[in-house]
Amino acid sequence: RRRHTRYPLVTGVQTCALPICVRLLDWNIRKINATSSRSLRSVLDAIDEVDPDALALQEVGDGVRDALVAALESRGHVAVMSDVPTRLKGLRVLVAARRSLVGNSPRVFVHPTFPRAIVGIELKEGARTSALVSFHVPNGANQGWSKADCLNALADLAASNPPSRTLLLAGDANEPASYRPDGSAIPYVSRREKLRFDGEGRVLSTTKPWRDKRGESRPTHQWYDAIERVFPSGRSRIFSELCLPYHLRPGAEPSHRTRGVPKPLDHLLCVGPQPKLLRLDYLHHLRDTHTKGAPSDHSALLAELES
């Protein structure tokens, strides 16, 4: 039905740069209860208000996924939904872009290890290409070591990206807990752990292995090693975090609140040549104006990018 050709997640593209002035919308929509026709109308009203050239959505409910793809395609977008085995129900991620940005034969990516959580599409402007990925890292409290594995998958994807290609990753990382004034990340830390840090504030070790709810046990430092690869507590970085200046701004409204505590969970990460950032805003008003009493606990992120 979607007429998409599937390719390996990492391609051999050797050119780069995003099309000029792309409006990118990133939004975790789950708490809108995106499982009904009413909630779908609310999401589409918000998308129509923003009128993005490309978008990444997370936690799309099974009840609206097919209708959402059809609605986006009727608006001139090519939309790609992540994979979930037919016997399973679950939330998915979506990435979409205007047909003028992806050409007649869009190159799409579904991560082989995390097909439910990582999906991407290639954007084009003439001979130049870039890649946009929508991702959702699992919550460690419920999914255990899958969170660390998914963070490692994002870091591996970044490490394998050709140096000349712009790779954008938009989504919900469930990290970090906050940032220091210098931009280094502070990870979620459980009360049960006693951590040691090096001179740059990076986690060195923990006292014992951690066993998740599924019974899988690993040395706890591997958990923080995975976080460090994406959100370092020191100076070393694989990704450029395009949202970081926003989160460091005094008085900035956070993208998410956990039990009332502000958390910068939603991100736009970049690997390779970085586009010029013309605008970056969290559209907090969309939580209320289009959600009919079922507000999302995440704010939509709008970025305007220029190559």
Protein model, in words:
With 307 residues, the protein is of the alpha+beta class. The chain is 21% helix and 33% strand. The protein contains eight helices and 21 strands. The strands form six sheets. The protein has a seven-stranded mixed β-sheet. It has a six-stranded mixed β-sheet with strand order 4-5-3-2-21-20. Strands 10-11 form a two-stranded antiparallel ribbon. The longest helix is centred in the N-terminal third of the chain and has 14 residues. The protein is globular and about 55 Å long. It starts with a strand and ends with a strand.
Reconstruct the topology from this structure.
Blueprint: E1 5-7, E2 22-28, H1 37-50, E3 54-60, H2 65-74, E4 77-81, E5 92-98, H3 99-102, E6 107-110, E7 118-125, E8 128-136, H4 140-143, H5 146-159, E9 166-172, E10 178-179, E11 185-186, E12 196-197, E13 203-205, E14 209-211, E15 217-219, H6 221-230, E16 240-241, H7 244-247, E17 256-258, E18 261-263, E19 266-271, E20 276-283, H8 286-289, E21 300-306
Parallel strand pairs: 1-6, 2-3, 8-9
Antiparallel strand pairs: 2-21, 3-5, 4-5, 6-7, 7-8, 9-19, 10-11, 12-13, 14-15, 16-19, 17-18, 20-21
